[in-house]
Backbone:
């Protein structure tokens, strides 16, 4: 940016103009994402049939490679064409990824990845390597999935900036942890390394990070951004947020209200139910966070590890008779430390 | 004429740029793309695969590939490396705990030969959140100064929430790519 010949004032004016243009565009934005067409299941099935046609034809192309292996020039062209077909297939998925059910997106991606692999393998077996090379470079395929040895991953935290003053609770066992955030503007809130604790957060935060909780109960007011939960075990969470990502959780129950689909990864034995938190003024907080309406998304969980159309075995809907009732933080006594 | 110069020639005519957006899940990639494009950002799901957005930016057409950052699908990132002109690495500046992960994944990416010619924009996102690290702090943690000298890079603090910093970042990226591809030969 430093090498521009224009004066600083011109640049400032230009910046201002662009900013106004963006604001203009933003003000004209549609109120919501374009609705899915009514016939979304129909478009899914037409996508799937196009996808499978293209896939079959690519597989045929791949299979033909052997028969033209003797003609190097033709083979190269053939591989280029095949690679192009795979790219086209990929574009098809990209264009449809908003409309497709999540497992279809995931399986499609897996298929494309497999096709690319097959092509790569064929290319490296059928196109003879040069007799020798000066550099002993690893092949592309190897370098792409190359992972450095374990000891390199654990970089020292020496000059790692940490915020001691950031709100949250860490390293506690068997405690009742209460935070009232009403009226104050809170950014991120973090819970980490808690064991057999009960956490009650009244009020709204922008982002919630949860790391390593065991046998805890966590009740938190509306989160206006996202929640990230990693390594929870034997715990109960009652949360409302725009997005929720759950990684490496075991045997835990989640009572959620979410604007988008909750996602799980590397988790099992996790169960879901609707949000059930109350405290004085929660309606206002929910409204403020745009979470006053039930979306039903608590039940639309996406499991990133699960590639099939049938229900993932890693999560389930919590049966009615096992759900905790409404939790009213205003009525809970503070001395009540039993978990 | 080599394949690369043919591709460049075609691109030059169409003034097209291919931009790859990556970074850990939850860093704000999708929100940033939608915000730049002036779209509604109130309901965004974690990205299951990838989205492509074609955006006209000044006199250029940007093809922005926004790829999901969940661990399970990070192995697919390499499928998108080919012909990338600009790489945008998005960081959640409020997620202090995963900066290690973030550095690890970025380092891995920068080893990738197919990306060696791409301009690198690092967006230190979520600056609106109280407690977020500043771009300078992020640069230090990611050890950006140690990067290969041949790499064109820039770090910019931004917020997809307020829109602040996004134009500054993309302006740098687009100009840097343009100066490499379209003006020089
Ligand atoms: N406060 C704040 N929140 C943000 C900002 N940018 C994104 N978010 C929130 O962060 C969460 C994640 O945003 P996404 O855009 O879905 O993140 P992503 O990088 O696309 O995530 P993946 O698709 O899983 O890789 C959402 O809840 C956003 O609302 C920001 O600048 N400030
Ligand atoms: Mg995304």
Residues:
């Amino acid at each position: 940016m430093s090498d521009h010949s224009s004066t600083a004032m011109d640049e400032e004016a230009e910046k201002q103009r662009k900013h106004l243009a963006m604001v203009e565009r933003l003000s004209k934005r549609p109120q919501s994402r374009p609705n899915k067409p009514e016939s979304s299941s129909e478009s899914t099935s037409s996508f799937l049939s196009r996808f499978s046609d293209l896939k079959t034809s690519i597989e045929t192309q791949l299979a033909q490679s052997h028969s033209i292996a003797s003609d190097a020039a033709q083979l190269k062209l053939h591989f280029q064409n095949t690679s192009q077909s795979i790219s086209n297939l990929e574009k098809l998925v990209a264009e449809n990824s908003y409309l497709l059910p999540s497992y279809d997106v995931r399986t499609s991606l897996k298929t494309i990845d497999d096709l690319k692999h097959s092509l790569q393998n064929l290319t490296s077996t059928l196109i003879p390597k040069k007799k020798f090379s000066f550099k002993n470079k690893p092949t592309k395929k190897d370098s792409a999935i190359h992972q450095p040895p374990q000891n390199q991953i654990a970089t020292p935290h020496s000059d790692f900036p940490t915020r001691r003053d950031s709100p949250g609770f860490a390293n506690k066992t068997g405690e009742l942890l209460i935070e009232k955030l009403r009226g104050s503007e809170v950014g991120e809130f973090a819970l980490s390394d808690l064991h057999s604790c009960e956490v009650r957060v009244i009020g709204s935060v922008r982002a919630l990070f949860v790391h390593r909780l065991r046998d805890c109960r966590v009740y938190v007011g509306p989160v206006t951004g996202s929640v990230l939960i990693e390594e929870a075990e034997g715990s109960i969470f009652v949360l409302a947020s725009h997005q929720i990502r759950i990684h490496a959780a075991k045997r835990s129950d989640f009572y959620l209200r979410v604007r988008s689909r909750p996602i799980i990864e590397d988790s099992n034995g996790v169960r879901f139910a609707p949000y059930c938190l109350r405290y004085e003024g929660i309606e206002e907080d929910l409204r403020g966070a745009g979470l006053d309406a039930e979306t039903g998304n608590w039940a639309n969980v996406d499991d990133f590890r699960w590639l099939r159309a049938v229900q993932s075995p890693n999560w389930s809907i919590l049966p009615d008779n096992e759900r905790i009732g409404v939790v009213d933080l205003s009525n809970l006594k503070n001395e009540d430390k039993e978990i | 004429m080599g394949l690369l110069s043919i591709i460049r020639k075609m691109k030059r005519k169409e003034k097209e740029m291919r931009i790859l957006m990556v970074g850990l899940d939850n860093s704000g990639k999708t929100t940033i793309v939608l915000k730049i494009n002036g779209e509604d950002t109130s309901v965004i799901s974690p990205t299951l695969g990838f989205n492509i957005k074609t955006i006209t930016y000044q006199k250029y057409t940007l093809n922005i590939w926004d790829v999901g950052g969940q661990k399970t699908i990070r192995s697919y990132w390499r499928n998108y490396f080919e012909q990338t002109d600009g790489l945008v690495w998005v960081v959640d500046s409020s997620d202090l705990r995963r900066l290690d992960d973030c550095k690890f994944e970025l380092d891995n990416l920068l080893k990738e030969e197919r990306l060696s010619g791409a301009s690198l924009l690092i967006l230190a996102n979520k600056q609106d959140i109280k407690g977020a690290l500043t771009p300078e702090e992020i640069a230090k943690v990611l050890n950006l100064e140690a990067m290969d000298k041949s790499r064109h890079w820039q770090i910019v603090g931004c917020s997809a929430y307020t829109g602040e910093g996004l134009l500054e970042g993309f302006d740098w990226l687009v100009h840097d790519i343009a100066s490499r591809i379209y003006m020089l030969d």
About this structure: The CA atoms of residues 55 and 111 of chain A lie 8 Å apart.
